[in-house]
Write a structure and sequence with these properties.
Blueprint (H helix, E strand, L loop, with lengths): L10 H10 L7 H5 L2 E6 L2 E6 L14 H17 L6 E12 L10 E10 L3 E9 L5 E14 L1
Antiparallel strand pairs: 1-2, 2-4, 3-6, 4-5, 5-6
Length: about 150
């Protein structure tokens, strides 16, 4: 299942169906091994287990992995409150890295949630925690919403 071929119903149903099917058919989430744990209106939780293939030269998980998980959770949280097929995109993403991660940190969880929803933009935030519930990164983002195709 892809976002492009979802049903004509709600974005929440689309996300829940994708999670139940094991994820989306293609994309960065599949490449990085990210799975959906839960989706409800305005909130999504993603899980993954980074490995040494995701390391930077310093021997820890690259910050881009954390940023991708947070951006994914945030964006899908926005999708849950939109009609399926509505276009949206992350306009900005600010990530604060709190704790380095290694392959021993997983599974890690990224929780994205909407903090304000307007007609044209959504303000969001996300947290990324390790297997012990320790905060590894925090993010805020703004998503732009456009008319349904």
């Amino acid at each position: 299942m892809t976002m492009e071929t979802g049903d004509a119903g709600s974005g929440l149903r689309l996300v829940q169906q994708a999670f139940a099917a094991g994820g989306f058919a293609r994309g960065i989430g599949r490449t990085l091994g990210i799975k959906g744990e839960s989706a409800e209106p305005g909130k999504v939780v993603l899980v993954a287990s980074p490995n040494e293939d995701h390391y930077n030269p310093l021997g820890t998980v690259h910050g881009g992995y954390a940023a991708t998980m947070l951006d994914g959770a945030i964006a899908l949280a926005v999708q849950t409150v939109l009609p399926a097929g509505t276009l949206y995109a992350t306009m900005d993403l600010k990530v604060t890295y709190i704790r380095a991660m290694t392959s021993a940190s997983g599974p890690i969880r990224a929780e994205g949630r909407i903090i304000h929803m307007g007609r044209r933009m959504a303000a969001t935030e996300g947290v990324l925690t390790d297997k012990d519930g320790k905060l590894c990164a925090h993010a805020t983002a703004t998503c732009m919403i456009t008319a349904k195709e």
